[in-house]
Amino acid sequence: MRLVADLEVPVSAVAVWPHVDSLDRYPAWMRLVHRVEPVESVPHTWDVELRARVGPFTRSKRLRMERTEYVPHERVRFERVGVDARDHAEWTLTTTLAGVEDGTRVQAELFYGGELWAGDGILRRVLDDEIRRAKTALVSVLDERSPTP
Questions:
Q1: Structural domain containing residue 42
Q2: CA–CA separation, 137 vs 108, rounded Å?
């Protein structure tokens, strides 16, 4: 499953970048990323707990994510890395920033290569809802903390 979300914000890429370049900044604006702890022994790696509500239930998933691509103020990519010998579903999150006339276009691409809930559309609906909330929250964070271009 691949989801792509675009958002234009009225600030520069330099102002957006600190909110997307490191996973430990995501919980402030993306509710899906519930908890993030850096892995001290491995640079640019985090233990992440994803959490989402499905009706009256809460589902969570723990992943180890590593930053695998980093182009300052332009693009960052995080990928799931295994910490054991089991075969795990692929998770990637890629965020790309591009200048537009009145600010910056933020594009986030989330890829999940597993099968859990993917076949019946529940996961897609949950992720779509979380992405909508994250867009609003990111704009609020940027309004509070970032200067205009």
A1: 2-145
A2: 14
Domain count, the chain: 1
Q: Which CATH number belongs to the domain containing residue 91 in this structure? A: 3.30.530.20
Give pLDDT, residue 119: 52
3-state secondary structure of 87: coil
DSSP-derived secondary structure for 8-39: EESS-HHHHHHHHSSGGGGGGT-TTEEEEEE-
| This prediction's pTM | 0.84
Residue 113 CB neighbours (<10 A): 13
Cα–Cα nearest to 95, from 80, 110, 81? 110
Backbone angles phi, psi at 109, to 5 degrees: -120, 120
Residue labelled with tokens 């579903």: 89
